[in-house]
Write a structure and sequence with these properties.
3-stranded mixed β-sheet; 21 helices; 454 residues; CBS-domain; mainly alpha; 6% strand; homodimer; Tetracycline Repressor, domain 2
Chain lengths: 454, 454
């Protein structure tokens, strides 16, 4: 398909191309544009039917949008912008350099311009920043038939007509009627009799993550957004909520891997930008690991005597780190799904301690068997070591205690972080690993001192 | 709110309670049921209005559903089941023990029972397993007015009426009409003129993750599902697609933390079940870390001479591990978002090498400065060590090389895993850490041997 289209462009067979593209989906066409030679992009874009062109435009990334806007005449620009929904227009302007943004705004009428500027002013992570201002509003004394007339009149320009909002004269939200309710009720029924007054809504300044979670919880198709005076100012549609979910998950996963969240997709993020997102945590964790080094230094002299102990350091550190990050990642995900709250901390601890106990018994046992059978009997790596059994004991005891401590630290830090207003996702593997490393070495050397004699 | 309700139950004020619950949302009521005393649950459930009761039932977890089903009379059970959509019924039956499932099936008519059994047979991760069989089907020679009649007739029992599907007499899918199209077109317009023939659909056996991704890509509200003969057999609605997205993300995050995916939420998963999900990777990684230990053992004698080198092992291992997991997690997420494919491997490598170069220069420089200023000059930890500068050089060189190798390993393993048909998420932090640990020690000891003399 894609090759065929690129071939048609090459051969300048635009009428065949037009027929082909007209049958395709906007999202798929936008993907194909990424493969088209830069100089051909405006030409190919111009052969798309007007409405499809606008849909394709919305699906493109901001670099390509800018390229097109710069190639557009003022008339073309106005035509594309006229087809867009308000939230998409705002998103596009938000991504453009100031001069391009100004040119777009110049093509809109005063009313739209005021609306756009208002939407641009909402904080980046707020409900206001993802809402659109085009929705169906009804009055409570309308009949179903009157409601249908209104939908037919303004429905072309609203992103969804499936949820209709009933407001009073000061735009206060009174209730919600779904198009399904309208359709399944008699034509002369009055809206106030069929509207649902128990409306789920958000405030313009609410976190957009909360909005996305509510979509999932209540199975919504659209969510009304009200201002401080409880006046309806816009709606968020489910497709935008899904985009927020996706972004938030990516952000959480990045934070869990000690990366500062980035705005763009992998290849759209420059090398230096990626570097800047990764280096702060790497530096911080490198410096923190110095403490672990200091713990080893403090035990250095004894390590030169019991050199066999050094070889177990990576295994103890890694197993502790893995155990801790299993607990922390599970808890972080459960917090973001709303399954765990601060009040659950004791229940979480009690569960993790029991899980940790099972894990540590199992790990210590397997390790003891492996050290005895494989290392001691088969490979004879302990040959001539008079402390062989003491060392095996120390390693297994340390493993046992480290896993339990790691799980406790791993499950409690994210919950505490959340309580203190930090992002729990930051308390994931890397930070937990650094903390658990230090703890496991302290445990290891304490057992070594106690058993082998200080 | 919640306390008030629990108080009303305590005081047996059921009529006040009924009025209060009737105004609430099903998802919120289901959450409150979790707090109600087990013996009161059937009583409180019975005071809910019939339709709301069914909605609340769907939102409950399977333990509570089972408790209620066991308390229901056959008549009550039939009433609740009659209100449910097919996909919810199937989900519930799927979670119940065999005897309960049989009892539910006995309350349904032969036709429904056949349908349920058919849906139960689809593999767990297939589109068929999440679809519902109740949708609006139209014929292409109907007028808009006839379509509305049909929607009014069967709309009560379908999960969505906003997407209508046009089929021929053998149920082959011909096109799709949205309710918006129907409403904004004249009443005597024929469906075949307004239907969109470029339908996005999936096969019953397609992976449900693909279905969820398509919802996001094409901004859909519902997706038709066809069988091998291209006959329409059901639809997936956006709320179910969102649930799949959520599950898949949780599964990915768990895999990245070396946990086998679990089916239930945190507190619903038993201690032993959690143990079973965590222990396999812990064991595997513990055994793998033995190789790292073996590398240290091989260098043991020299380490007793240059004991100062031991203290840097945790820092080198951790920084390598963190650098590698940053790259691997970024790449894993980009693969699951569809931003990176196997053919991109060279582009990814080229980007990661440049990022790694920036990171390693920066880390090595900071480390050199810190070791010289803080450790050498201020703390004088190298006091009396004739090899102080050589050791600082070895540590910084190792850091430099380890970070580069870690990023290369971290970014390429997930892509290779995907190519070989494994889940890339498994190639996340823990496995990368273990691999990078070994590599970083080999680099470290090689530099040490070369510079300090073998």
């Amino acid at each position: 398909m894609e090759e065929k289209i690129l071939e048609l462009i090459e051969q300048r067979k635009f009428s065949v191309l037009k027929a082909m593209l007209s049958d395709m989906n906007a999202a798929d066409i936008a993907l194909i544009f990424e493969e088209i030679d830069e100089k051909d992009i405006p030409v190919v874009f111009r052969i798309l039917p007007k409405e499809l062109a606008a849909d394709v435009f919305v699906e493109m990334d901001s670099d390509m949008q800018q390229l097109l806007i710069e190639a557009f005449s003022d008339k073309e620009l106005r035509e594309v912008m006229d087809e867009l929904f308000m939230d998409d227009t705002v998103d596009i302007i938000d991504e453009m350099p100031a001069t391009v943004a100004k040119r777009i705004l110049k093509q809109t009428d005063a009313n739209t311009r005021r609306m756009i500027n208002q939407l641009l002013a909402y904080p980046d992570d707020s409900a206001g920043s993802i809402m659109t201002t085009e929705y169906i509003d009804l009055k409570k004394d309308m009949t179903v038939d009157m409601a249908f007339d209104r939908i037919r009149k303004i429905g072309f320009d609203t992103e969804t007509i499936y949820a209709c909002y009933v407001t009073d004269n000061s735009r206060k939200l009174l209730g919600i009627v779904s198009l399904k309710d309208l359709l399944l009720n008699p034509k002369d029924e009055v809206i106030s009799n069929i509207m649902n007054e128990n409306v789920i809504f958000v405030n313009t300044l609410d976190d957009k993550e909360k909005v996305a979670n509510d979509f999932e919880k209540y199975d919504l198709l659209a969510m009304p957004v009200v201002d401080k005076e409880n006046r309806l100012v816009g709606i968020v549609t489910v497709d935008d909520a899904i985009d927020v979910m996706k972004e938030e998950v990516t952000e959480d996963i990045e934070k869990m891997a000690a990366i500062l969240p980035s705005e763009h997709s992998y290849f759209k993020t420059g090398v230096f930008e990626t570097f800047k997102a990764r280096i702060p945590w790497l530096l911080l964790l490198m410096i923190s690991a110095t403490f672990t080094g200091a713990i080893i230094s403090g035990f250095e002299e004894k390590l030169t005597i019991y050199a066999g102990l050094i070889a177990f350091i990576p295994m103890l550190m890694d197993t502790g780190g893995n155990s801790g990050s299993q607990a922390s990642v599970t808890v972080i995900r459960s917090i973001s799904l709303g399954d765990i709250e601060f009040s659950d901390i004791l229940r979480v601890l009690w569960k993790e301690i029991r899980v940790a106990f099972c894990c540590s018994i199992c790990l210590a046992a397997v390790n003891a068997i492996k050290l005895f059978l494989v290392d001691y009997l088969m490979l004879k790596t302990f040959r001539g070591d008079p402390h062989a059994f003491a060392e095996i004991g120390i390693v297994c005891l340390t493993l046992f205690c480290t896993v339990i401590v790691a799980k406790i630290v791993g499950c409690s830090l994210p919950i505490l972080a959340k309580k203190l207003g930090f992002d729990p996702a930051v308390m994931a593997s890397p930070l937990i690993t650094t903390i658990v490393d230090a703890i496991s070495l302290i445990i290891y050397f304490s057992f070594a001192s106690a058993i082998l004699g200080a």
